Amino acid sequence: MEEDSQQDFQRISRSDIVLAVLYAVVIIAGIFGNSLVIAVVWRTRSMHTATNYLLVNLASSDILVLLWCPRTYDFAVTGSLTKGTTGDYLCRFFIADPIDILCLGVTLFTLTVLAVERYQALVTPLSTKYKLTKKSVIYAISTTWIVSLLVSIPDFIFTHFDGNLGKCVSPLGPEVDASSGKATYVVIAISLNIFIPFLVITFCYFQILRGMFITQTICAGPANVNSEKRKLAVLIIAVTVVFYILVLPFAIFMLHVAFKNHFTKEYRHNETDVTVLKVLSFLIIANSSLNPVLYAFQSENYRRGFRSLFCPKNSVGQVQNYPLG
User: Fold this and answer.
1) Between the CA of residue 157 and those of 97, 168, 238, what are the distances in Å?
2) pLDDT bracket for residue 222 (50, 70, 90)
3) Which of 62, 160, 281, 289 is the most exposed place for a label (fewest CB within 10 A)?
4) Burial of 163 (0-12, 13-18, 19+ CB in 10 A)
5) What's the pLDDT band for 176 if we cut at 50, 70, 90?
6) Contact 251, 194 (CB under 8 A)
7) CA 98 to CA 92: how far, in whole Å?
């Protein structure tokens, strides 16, 4: 019976193959697009601003999410892992989700910093106490990685290879075990990584949108400069909204699994949970490839920068020096 159960977990279905193909397309496109974002900011001196450095940090974390996409390696090594330290090590650093959780935390905290930075720049522009500069932004970026690492440490500790299931098991999987405290970690991690930043971001962007379109106290100066400020605010809001549309379902689902296992006091394999998790995990990976598309649609500076990479003679001097950060 145990062998049959393990074979069920190791069986590769047609949907797995379809997902693997979709993952490959998304990963290749995402790495290429985010690399372009980094290259544009790196090569364009007028885009060396605090805001764009934060967008580069966002692109870097997205690239790492795509490179360490769990489903890619899980699909490649299904049924071939061995028990012991080696299997646990591969699960923690290559196959399961700890690295991705770390990088997703960086994404969330970077979006939070962006929201606070835009709030400070647009809603309270006269206050310079917390204003980010090209020099101080490095501390904000470092903080996003340090805090994300601290939050994800239990994920690295709990993730391991389960010989009975024949797969990697992590706290943020459908096998959440309430008796070991992993369900509690799921609630804490999702609250710190998703819900608390969501409240901060919502407050900041509500105030920005209110000032732009209701009280009209934001961007009421020279048209050319404030038009770019509006576009930048809309760009960052779009990036944030898309992120939460694709990530919130995963967070809600994991809370559902954690509470369900807490009240039943045991984990029972549910094929529906596994299928839902696969789809929601794909949405998270897809999000990491969408930001460059949003930049191309929303930002003239990024569009010109993208063109300059492929047509340097005609476009390299066209990126405008707008005060974006």
Assistant:
1) 12, 13, 35
2) low
3) 160
4) middle
5) low
6) yes
7) 6
Q: Which of 151, 147, 144, 150 is nearest to 116 (CA)?
A: 144
Q: At 62, which amino acid appears?
A: D
On the CB side of 211, CA atoms within 13 Å amount to: 22
Cα separation, 79 vs 176, in Å, equals: 21
Rounded Cα distance, 29 and 52, in Å:
21
Task: Report the DSSP beta bridge partners of residue 162.
Answer: 167
Closest CA to 276 of 188, 173, 166, 184: 173
The answer to whether the Cα torsion of 144, 147, 150, 151 is positive or negative is: negative
Residue 110 makes CB contacts below 8 A (sequence gap 6+) with: 54, 57, 58, 61, 141, 144
**Pairwise CA distance, residues 132 & 116, whole Å:** 10
Q: Which two tokens stand for residue 224?
A: 């050319």
Residues 16-31 pLDDT 10s? 778 888 888 999 999 9
Q: CA–CA separation, 302 vs 236, rounded Å?
A: 13
As a whole number of Å, the CA-based R_g of the chain is 22
Locus of tokens 């006091």 = 265
Q: With a threshold of 0.90, does the pTM exceed it?
A: no
As a whole number of angstroms, the distance between CA 108 and CA 112 comes to 6
Q: List the structure tokens of 100.
A: 């991705």
pLDDT, one tens digit per residue, over 88-140 is 888 888 788 898 889 989 999 999 999 998 888 888 876 666 678 888 999 99
Neighbours of 124 (CB within 10 A): 13
Q: Is the C-alpha dihedral spanning 167, 173, 176, 181 positive or negative?
A: positive
What ranges in the chain are assigned the alpha helix state H? Answer: 2-10, 14-43, 50-67, 70-77, 85-90, 98-122, 137-158, 182-190, 196-213, 223-264, 271-298, 300-310, 312-315
Give the Cα separation of 27 and 292 in Å (integer). Answer: 13
